């Protein structure tokens, strides 16, 4: 009887020589992970040679990856060509599976490890989490500032067409109008592409469409100043401020556009804010000057008109023709 008990105990202890895993219930990945690693740690590996190890990863009952240590052979499932483990790390118990994000699918993955006669398996769920590219607040500011600036620009256009109707040639108004319209449409399209969600080419293009064309605002404001109030130190200061804002936002854009986790959002946003501010100052200034200027306007305009007209026309035509090409 005694030998049998010993035998039973012996076999029981042998049976308990299972591989023990560190349990990880689930791991997450987002649009920002270029590759995905599903962890699988064996706590009590005793093998001293990789020949003794065999690893199999399964998803929904199908083998997606196997590693045969004895043959040093790896196999991949059809849609999992990028799957890999690091064989050298197997002896330390690490059988984690790595694959490209493009091939990753959410689900319950089974990691099955065999070491000579001992074996074990664990299940890890791979989940996908949607993360917004910029934070919600940043999203709002990035869209609001350019739209505000465009609206203020239309306000300037309104003042110019109403107050200086007599001195305006029709083509100039049309050019300003077309420039404003193009800008409005591009910014709206950009905002629509940009707003919903995760980092993607679509969102990056949207952001580019919002930020880059704001240079049109500077040109429109310049044209409007020339028609309305001519150039004064104050308008020059406003234009310089706006150029500064534009430079900041373009630098911010270039730093953010290739980053899945953009840290330079505030730079971009302050640039866009300055552009909108310059637009606001321009509008206020024009309103003030326009209400003071009524009496002195006709003689002044009469002198400056030919020069301004030519210059404005050239600038606007140059700009309208070359802008799409530059883009
Ligand atoms: C696995 O768990 C053990 C004990 O809880 C711990 O000491 C070890 O560091 C863990 N291994 C890994 C790779 O996390
Ligand atoms: C995704 O990337 C994050 C941050 O780099 C990392 O902590 C996480 O483990 C990755 N997820 C997976 C499943 O690889
Ligand atoms: C994975 O398994 C867990 C627990 O059994 C279950 O709640 C979950 O829905 C499964 N996930 C998928 C994607 O099948």
UniProtKB/TrEMBL annotation:
Protein name as annotated: Leukocyte surface antigen CD47
Source organism (scientific name): Neovison vison
Source organism phylogeny: Eukaryota, Metazoa, Chordata, Craniata, Vertebrata
Alphabetical list of PANTHER family matching this protein: LEUKOCYTE SURFACE ANTIGEN CD47
InterPro entries per record: CD47 (IPR006704), CD47-like_TM (IPR013147), CD47_Vset (IPR013270), Ig-like_dom (IPR007110), Ig-like_fold (IPR013783), IgV_CD47 (IPR037805)
Main location: membrane
Subcellular location: Cell membrane
Domain Ig-like: 3-124
Residues of the signal peptide: 1-17
């Amino acid at each position: 009887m005694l030998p049998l008990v010993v035998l039973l105990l012996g076999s029981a202890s042998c049976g308990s020589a299972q591989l023990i895993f560190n349990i990880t219930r689930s791991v997450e990945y987002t649009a920002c992970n270029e590759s995905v690693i599903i962890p699988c740690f064996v706590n009590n590996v005793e093998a001293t040679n990789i020949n003794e190890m065999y690893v199999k990863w399964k998803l929904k009952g199908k083998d997606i990856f196997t590693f045969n240590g004895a043959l040093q052979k790896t196999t991949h499932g059809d849609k999992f060509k990028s799957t890999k483990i690091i064989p050298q790390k197997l002896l330390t118990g690490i059988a984690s599976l790595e694959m490209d994000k493009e091939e990753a699918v959410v689900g319950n993955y089974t990691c099955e490890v065999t070491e000579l006669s001992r074996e074990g398996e664990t299940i890890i769920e791979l989940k996908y989490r949607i993360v917004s590219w910029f934070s919600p607040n940043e999203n709002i500011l990035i869209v609001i500032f350019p739209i505000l600036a465009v609206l203020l620009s239309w306000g300037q256009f309104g003042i110019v067409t109403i107050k200086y109707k007599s001195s305006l040639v029709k083509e100039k108004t049309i050019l300003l109008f077309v420039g404003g319209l193009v800008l409005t449409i591009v910014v709206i399209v950009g905002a629509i592409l940009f707003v919903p969600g995760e980092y993607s080419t679509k969102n990056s293009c949207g952001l580019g469409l919002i930020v880059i064309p704001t240079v049109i605002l500077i040109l429109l404001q310049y044209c409007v100043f020339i028609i309305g109030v001519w150039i004064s130190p104050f308008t020059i200061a406003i234009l310089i401020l706006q150029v500064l804002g534009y430079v900041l936002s373009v630098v911010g854009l270039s730093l953010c556009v290739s980053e899945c986790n953009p840290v330079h959002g505030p730079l971009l946003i302050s640039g866009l804010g300055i552009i909108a501010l310059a637009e606001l100052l321009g509008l206020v200034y024009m309103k003030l000057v326009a209400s003071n200027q009524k009496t002195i306007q006709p003689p002044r305009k009469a002198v400056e008109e030919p020069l301004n007209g030519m210059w404005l026309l050239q600038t606007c035509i140059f700009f309208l023709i070359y802008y799409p090409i530059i883009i």
